[in-house]
Amino acid sequence: MQKIISVLLSLILALPITSAVIPDSVTSLGDAVFYGCRSLTSLTIPESVTRIGDRAFGGTGSNAFADCPCLTLTVSSGSAAEQYAKAHNIPYVLAE
User: Fold this and answer.
1) Taking Cα atoms as reference points, which of 36, 32, 41 lies closest to residue 70?
2) What letter does residue 62 receive in the DSSP assignment?
3) How far separated are the first and last CA of the chain, in Å rounded?
4) With contact defined as beta carbons under 8 Å apart, do 22 and 9 qualify?
5) Phi and psi dihedrals of 80, rounded to 5?
6) Total structural domains within the chain
7) Which of 20, 58, 75, 90 is most buried, most CB within 10 Å of its CB?
8) Which SS3 state, helix, strand or coil, does residue 15 take?
9) What digits encode the pLDDT tens for the residues 12-37?
């Protein structure tokens, strides 16, 4: 089931959308899942996501955010998503 959700998420994010909310049922975001989604400016990642894959946003290291330059993540405090954002200098806000 997780594989199906990952594939669907990749297909949806290839569309020219500006915001998305990852469902609570998702626990992992695959490698390069957001590659090429330059129009996406807002993404909410739930606390249920415990793994974010390599190059999830299209780049690596200091260039980790290369394919999503205008994106701000909404994450839970202390979550894997918050840790990922901090480690890769990705703009984020904490969910309320």
Assistant:
1) 41
2) G
3) 29
4) yes
5) -60, -35
6) 1
7) 75
8) coil
9) 556 677 888 999 998 988 887 777 77
